[in-house]
Predict the 3D structure of the following.
Amino acid sequence: MRDLAPANVRAIAPYVPGKPIAETARELGIDAARILKMASNESPLGPSPAALAAIRGALDGLNYYPDGSGYELKGAISRRLGVTPEKIVLGNGSNDVLELVARAFLRAGESAIYSRHAFMVYPLVVQAIGAQGIEVPARDFGNDLEALALAVRADTRIVFLANPNNPTGTFSAWEDIAALVERVPRQVLVVLDEAYGEYLPDELASPTPGWLARFPNLVVTRTLSKAYGLAGLRVGYALAHPEVAELMNRVRQPFNVNHLAMVAACAALEDTGFIARARDVNAAGLAQLARGFERLGLAYIASRANFITVRVGPAERIYRALLAEGVIVRPIAGYGMPEHLRVTVGLPEHNERFLDALARALGVR
Ligand SMILES: Cc1ncc(COP(=O)(O)O)c(C=O)c1O
């Protein structure tokens, strides 16, 4: 049956998600409550209580289809960011809007650019439509903005980059990103993925909503899966020029974001105290993990996100040893980093349990 699919689809490397808690508990024969998942950059704080309350209040309306225009949620995003609703596209997670950009703007035979060690979904959505993905070498594990700009060809339609980057946590200065958007030809969309933007300190906060009027070829993507703690609901959005947003909306499934996700997202966006706490807990956790790696003599990549990537050498063996203790982290050989593991920042006790298990796995104690 494989030959029924076009060659570009057959060539797609399947996305490998973080190992689920329930599966690990089954395999180890232990209670799911004893499993610590630090593998998919989820929030250790759970969902915002305001979001949970909003969901409870919305359960009775589930016999109705959701509002396919997302009027309320676009209003909430619009108020929060000062961006008018016609510049907003809602997605079933930000993965969905990443795919919408590709489906709306990229044809088979054209090309899209992304960095080595970039988020796996970029090559995936490019390949799915038979376009060519151009992978540009990274610099110090991060986006090399100069190399990305130089890689643009006559047939290039999209440059994808994340800031901070996943899986490396590296950060590029916003003014350098503005220079990249300015430099690429106007027929090339720059898709700037800000999935981890909420974790940046105030002085590095993203200025990009304010750039939309200046850069009609800029698409910013964001998610409520990370700092907002709503990964299981699937809700994200894109910000773009109204004409770009309108075209993305044409290829969108009419009810791509479910009602509970939208209701929860509206409440979560208002809960600014929750995000401030997420940022503080994350900053302390990053520092705790970095200190732990230093004690163990391990090199790590300085991170601005809610995860940190550490060089452990035989990563697959260490991953398995951690797993045997019920600690799930993420091997990233598939991202071209076979000696590194990526670990999501947890609460202080999670970070400590992981560091202890890591020391044992390395044979340090
Ligand atoms: C860089 C980046 N972009 C986008 C996403 C997608 O997140 P979601 O589809 O949950 O919004 C992720 C999730 O891991 C990510 O790391």
